[in-house]
Each structure stands twice: as C-alpha cells, then as structure tokens.
Amino acid sequence: MSTAATPVYLSQSSQQCSLLQQFIERQSLEFAGDCQPSAEQARLIIMSPEFQLDQLSKAWAAISELSLSEIAIDKLADRAWQLPLSAALSAPQLAVLEALKPRLLALDIEINYLADGVAPFLSSSGALACFDMDSTLIQVEVIDELAKAAGVGEQVAAVTEAAMRGELDFRESFIQRMSTLKGLDEAVLADIAANIPLSPGMPELIRGLKDLGFKTAIFSGGFDYFAGQLQQRFGFDQIFANRLDIVDGKVTGQAKGDIVDAERKAQLLEQLANEYDLPMSSTIAVGDGANDLLMLAKAGMGVAYRAKPIVRDQAQFSISQLGLDAVLYLLGQKEG
C-alpha cells in the first residue's frame, strides 16, 4: 500500500491543529474520520521539543516502514501526539520500531510504544509511580555537591559518572565516595538543599499523577535528608534513601543501614506494589542510571529519563528531550 493511500483518522484536537493539516496536505493523505482512542488501545507516542513540517515529513517516511494499515492521530500537546493503533504491533513491526528509534531521535523526535494502552495505569484501584532522585527528580547528584563542599568534587564526580554508566559496582563506589566526606560540617546539607535545581516538569508531573490517583515514592541511592525535603514540598507518599551518619555535627564518612542499590530499588518497587495491592502492570518507575535498570525492567512502565546510554538502550520507554512531565503524555494525558 502506498503512503498516499493510507487513511488517517484525527481526533477533534488534531483536526484543529494547523501543522497537522499542512502535513496531511503535503503528504496527500486521506482524511477518513474522527479518532476516539480507548484506554485499552495500543498506541505510539511521539514527542518533540518543537514539531516542524519538514521534520514530520521525514518522520512519516520512517514510520511508514511499520506498514500500518491506517493511522490515527490524537494531539496531546504541541509537543506530543499519540497514534492509537487498530491492533498491537507484531514481532516484525516491533523489530522495525526499535531500528527506527535512533533515526527519529536524530530528527528530535522520540517514539514510545504502549502495547496495552494506558488502562493499567488509570484503573479505579489506583497505580504507583516510583522515582530515582539524583539526576531524575533533581538535576544534580547530591553526593557530588557534598563532595564539592568537602573539596573533593572532581574526584567524586568522576566515580559517580562511571557508576551511573554501569562501569563500577554501585555499592562499592558509594562506600568509596562516602569515605571522602568524612569531617564535612552538617550545616552544609541545608545550604545544598536550598539550592538544588529541580528537573523541568517535576512539580507538574507529581501534581498530575496525584490527580490521577497515583501513589508516589522516591527510591534513592542518595540521601534521605534531601529526599525528605522533596517529600515535604511535593507530597511523595514514601521515601527510601541512604542515611548519612553524623556525629557531633560532622559527617563520619559512613551511611547508616542498608545501602539503596539496584537490587534494593527493585525490591522496594515490588514491596510497595504489594502494600498498595496493585499488580506490577500498574507501576511506573523512572530513573537515569545503571542502578535503576532492575526497577525499570520490573515496572509496568520503566522510563529512562535523560538517561545514560546503557539505560536508554535497555529501558522500554525513554524521555530524552522533554521534561519529566512528559511521563503524563505516555499516560495519554492532554495538556490543559
């Protein structure tokens, strides 16, 4: 079937989008009627910081390689559209999709596929979203900020980066980095906490998830002092993070209790799902580093957010260009 013969169904919001109208005219596509996606429907989500006509034309040529019998387009926002599918993608189509992802990313377009639609996350029984903290909910690695204050910033940052790329064992590297903080004044924590930059779209995402009935949690290989600050500000239901050992107002260079590593994060995800009586299919996990891979693989929707290549390549879903609130687009939520 030629591209020109492909019928295109548009939602009401899409029919009012001038860019889409220009695209349909340029591609000589056939408008076939209204699109009204159901929650159970398989779909593709495409996102870009700014859709442009020439970019869309190149993307269309790539997406056409999926040999879809028809196309439906539902505009979620200026930055995100969903393409509800008449049937789930076949194994050969999934292989084509994986090959398309880097080509589309080169066009500043990211594509994600939901085989079971968004229904598992929008049930009346609720859902669960769990987040890494450092470089996910916030834009920095807190241990690196503490290390800067201790005068060992470059040394620790290099180890952190290697650990997040999966080149070092997280637990061993964490103990090594912690030891460099010995003697740091406790007062530094408050100064750092007051200046930590949030990730773009983080407050909007947490507010949106709570409106949808989600429980939210932080699983951090960082520190509970900073996770607790986020909990107070944004209402996370639970937090799990490492606890700094402080004696006489000074950091001892050790952490109290079990270290929150990759295995612990995956265990906590399953633990909270059981606590809230939710199937794993109704869980979301979001992270950026190698120590997040296990929880991303276990979750119903594992999202690599502005992640290291090893994580982006292995995660089922990824957000590389937009802010954290783009998770709401993966759930089919419309802006405004």
From TrEMBL:
Gene Ontology terms for molecular function: L-phosphoserine phosphatase activity; magnesium ion binding
Source taxon at top rank: Bacteria
Keywords, alphabetical: Amino-acid biosynthesis, Hydrolase, Magnesium, Metal-binding, Serine biosynthesis
Names of required cofactors: Mg(2+)
Coiled-coil boundaries: none
Catalytic center residues: 132 (nucleophile), 134 (proton donor)
Record's GO cellular component terms: cytoplasm
Reactions accelerated catalytically: O-phospho-L-serine + H2O = L-serine + phosphate; O-phospho-D-serine + H2O = D-serine + phosphate
Biological process annotations from GO: L-serine biosynthetic process
Pathway recorded for this protein: Amino-acid biosynthesis; L-serine biosynthesis; L-serine from 3-phospho-D-glycerate: step 3/3
Annotated EC: 3.1.3.3
Family from the record: Belongs to the HAD-like hydrolase superfamily. SerB family.
NCBIfam families reported in the protein's UniProt record: HAD-SF-IB (TIGR01488), serB (TIGR00338)
Listed PANTHER family: PHOSPHOSERINE PHOSPHATASE
Protein name: Phosphoserine phosphatase
Native organism: Pseudoteredinibacter isoporae
